Amino acid sequence: MRTSGVLLFIAYLGFISLGLPDAAHGINWPFVRSEFAVPIGWLGLVIAGGGVGYLVSSFSVGYLLSRFGVGWLLVVSSLFVSFGLFGFYFSSTFTVFVLFAIVIGIGSGAIDAGLNAYAAEHFSAKHMNWLHAAFGVGATAGPIIVTTVLVSFSQNWRLGYAILAVILFVTAIVFLFSRHLWESDKHAPKKSEGSLDETVTVSQLQALKHPVIRSQIVFFFLYSGVEVGVGQWAFTVMTESRGISLASAGTWVAIYWGALAIGRAVFGFLVERFPVDQLLRLCLAGVVLGALSFTASVTPYASYLGLALMGFSAAPIFPCMISQTAIRVGKKYSAHAIGFQMSAAVTGAMTLPFLSGLIGGHYGLAWLSVTFLFYALLLLGLFQLILKRVK
């Protein structure tokens, strides 16, 4: 196997491992809150802690890459995640548990932004889509591992976190022994002038002044708000305001996430056959049409079609926008830009669904679905503005 193939394999492994802890809280939380005797809503504190850590490290990834290089960044960040998961195993109080969530967020943000920055420069758009599909594999495998542990070991939630910690530690060892490969230009599958180290020649403040970077920060903020918001609220909207059965609503929300994962695999083939910007424009229009169908909801099938169309259409948007970053803003800005974009994405995922919920609670659930359509229209318009600014 050529070294480029080795790096691709390791990158896929990294994205899978990155997805493993993401959904574990949703499975373990009933047992965690019972042991620490905290309200059920305090899961939000755990998620917020991880989000803060993620924001700090992903926002600073351009600086971190310039200081340590992608190889060492992946090693140390994976150890952070492993350490945080082991910390869950040994946590004696809920406060300690939340502190370790911050540690995991710091590691996850650096891995996510670091891998995306490297992949955007060295791998094709096809592999960017497949790498993000690999994240979905990890996000699916994580709950399976944790559930299996709960069933097989008398609901021992700590052991599930420990097993995930071991997997992340092994990943860190893999990154350690392959760290020199990440810094070697001659092995890059997709080579352009200059190396990753050469791209980081401007400060964060200089990068933030770039008009395209500012537009893309807003784009990623909106996109993640749509993707996560639809996944979080569609079930509630369908069951509580449209009279759709629990089984049907749950099935179609699962189809939404499945279409998102499968779509990334499918578009991995298509991005090499069609211009990326044309595909992105069509997909953004598809998200708008899906949101319109879901919002109008003339029949239950309109809701179902809207969800499936939004999931499939949204699939290539995130990875393709990441892969196009260096082309749009220039190599010297790309590492900073990708870090900003990842930070904006997690911020949007935390805030826009919450805002939609407030609107739905005040004006009714029908207006909650209208927010999805509004965000989707803003995304399409902003994409056109980005293309105009690039030209």
TrEMBL record:
The family database entries (InterPro entries) matched by this protein are listed as: MFS, MFS_dom, MFS_trans_sf, MFS_Transporter
| Top-rank taxon | Bacteria
Concerning PANTHER family, the annotation shows: BYPASS OF STOP CODON PROTEIN 6
Entry membrane topology: Multi-pass membrane protein
Any idea what this protein is called? MFS transporter
Q: Which PROSITE patterns match?
A: MFS
The compartments listed are: Endomembrane system
Q: Its family?
A: Belongs to the major facilitator superfamily.
What is the organism lineage in this UniProt record? Bacteria, Pseudomonadati, Pseudomonadota, Gammaproteobacteria, Oceanospirillales
> Major facilitator superfamily (MFS) profile domain location, by residue?
7-391
* TM region positions: 36-56, 68-90, 96-118, 130-153, 159-182, 217-238, 244-267, 279-298, 304-323, 335-359, 365-387
Among Pfam families, the record links this protein to: MFS_1 (PF07690)
